[in-house]
Write a structure and sequence with these properties.
It comes from Nelumbo nucifera (Sacred lotus). With 471 residues, the chain is α+β, with helices and mostly antiparallel strands.
Length: 471
């Protein structure tokens, strides 16, 4: 009894028991700490992996040549330009771009809207270049290719030898320049078609607004039609007409958002070394949703002589205005002359009307002979003239779709005789009903009444062509 009591109250035994308890507690704390570190590390690794995965997905959505470099955080202009490389057969550009657009200062607040616009299209095909790079591409703007109201076009060259055309926009009116700049980048920058000029990139800076396009050494179609220096076989002109129609059809019917060009004319059709046509100059172009039947206009667009009547009057505007302009272009391709020539006799001065008069009298073959079209090409030339007459119908609804125009030119569908597209010019007042407008007064009413059957027939016949095309 006394021995057990002594043992229970021995101080050494109590100390030993406390030490054992402390050791057990410490071991659990160490184990818990290790488990916490392992779990925390695993969580961090999972988060990093998720971030990397997201970045990879974002990067894959950006064209290869527009992806941001992660291995070099700082790249000088010279190094940046030297990294530009391309496949000369396809002209695909691979380039290392700065990780972000320049930060705007208080003095640049005026351009906040345009900068936001640039941010929105940062993942599209065009690349943003710096003013120093543009100066390097053009050898300090040493060779002028052309100039106009928009600005000056210079010949340039990428470090890999690919030639480019650099359009430097004027800064007389900042608002107009920004509108033209946004129109070109947001439209042609979203397209990829053999019959559309390619936009490689752009520069938007306080000191420079520029657009960098592929260089087409043969210039524009008007040089071949009216210059007298280049002789082109009619068969090649037929191919140019079909290629141009395919490019416009792509803009109207195959893009995610319909693109209306508004300025189709020979000067805006560029030719590559093989004389393949490429629609260019999208400074007046506009994107529109497919569910919208009409477009709201802000100011006049187009070139007199090619612009559809509804562009110059307060009538609804649709993509059919490009069809009208293309029709006017077809007349000039067919005749290899300008539509209006004041040096000719009065009946021959305006080629579109003269073509209608000859067609109406059954004398198209005589017109082909006057235009010096060879006998073997006259069937296709007559077909082209009939397509042109359909395209320039006064009523937009009577004009065919551009995809239908392509098939008509290629001979894929039969062309029914078109109605008189210029009847509204022969009346005492314009045919407002043909454009969806209204008229008042007895004279206007009688004019609309007399012309209405013609346009009703035109709309019905066009509908029949579309049905035949789709069947």
């Amino acid at each position: 009894m006394s021995s057990n009591y002594y043992s229970a109250t021995d101080p050494f035994s109590k100390f030993q028991t406390m030490e054992d308890q402390f050791g057990s507690t410490f071991s659990w704390m160490v184990a818990a700490s290790i488990i916490s570190v392992v779990v925390g590390t695993a969580a961090i690794v999972a988060i990093v992996f998720a971030i990397i995965n997201c970045l990879n997905k974002v990067g894959s959505a950006i064209p290869t040549y527009a992806q941001v470099a992660t291995s070099e955080s700082s790249v000088t202009s010279a190094q940046y330009a030297s990294k530009l490389s391309a496949d000369t057969s396809t002209h695909n550009i691979e380039v290392t771009v700065p990780p972000a657009f320049p930060v705007i200062t208080n003095s640049q607040m005026r351009t906040v809207t345009i900068e936001k616009f640039l941010s929105d299209i940062a993942r599209e095909r065009p690349i943003r270049f710096s003013p120093e790079q543009v100066a390097g591409f053009t050898n300090n703007y040493s060779t002028v290719l052309g100039s106009g109201g928009f600005g000056v076009v210079y010949i340039g060259e990428f470090p890999n030898g690919v030639k480019v055309a650099v359009k430097v926009l004027n800064r007389i009116s900042d608002k107009r320049v920004e509108e033209q700049f946004m129109a070109e980048v947001s439209t042609i920058g979203r397209t990829n078609h053999v019959n559309l000029v390619r936009l490689y990139g752009f520069c938007f800076d306080d000191t420079l607004r520029a657009l960098i396009y592929e260089y087409l050494e043969n210039g524009s179609l008007d040089m071949f039609l009216f210059g007298g220096e280049h002789a082109v076989e009619w068969e090649k002109l037929q191919e140019i007409a079909i290629g141009t129609a395919k490019g416009i059809a792509y803009l109207h019917e195959e893009c995610q958002q319909r693109i209306i060009h508004y300025d189709i004319k020979p000067g805006n059709i560029l030719l590559d070394p093989d004389l393949t046509p490429k629609v260019a100059d999208f400074g007046l172009a506009k994107l529109c949703n497919r569910d919208k039947t009409h477009v709201t206009m802000t100011g006049l667009r187009g070139t007199p002589g090619y612009a559809a009547p509804e562009l110059w009057k307060p009538y609804p505007v649709t993509h059919k205005c490009d069809v009208y302009s293309f029709g006017m272009l077809l007349f000039e391709i067919m005749g290899r002359r300008r539509n209006h020539d004041p040096d000719l006799s009065e009946t021959r001065q305006w080629l579109p009307r003269w073509t209608w008069e000859m067609f109406n009298k059954g004398e198209l073959a005589d017109l082909m002979a006057i235009c010096e079209i060879a006998e073997e090409d006259r069937v296709k030339a007559e077909r082209m003239s009939m397509v042109a007459l359909w395209c320039v119908q006064s009523s937009p609804e009577a004009r065919p779709l551009m995809s239908t125009v392509v098939k008509m030119l290629e001979g894929g569908i039969e062309i029914v005789p078109p109605p008189n597209p210029f009847q509204y010019l022969e009346s005492s007042s314009p045919d407002l009903a043909a454009f969806g407008g209204s008229t008042t007064g007895s004279d206007s009413s009688s004019t609309v009444q007399s012309s209405q059957p013609c346009y009703s027939t035109a709309r019905k016949t066009t509908f029949e062509i579309e049905i035949a095309n789709s069947s």
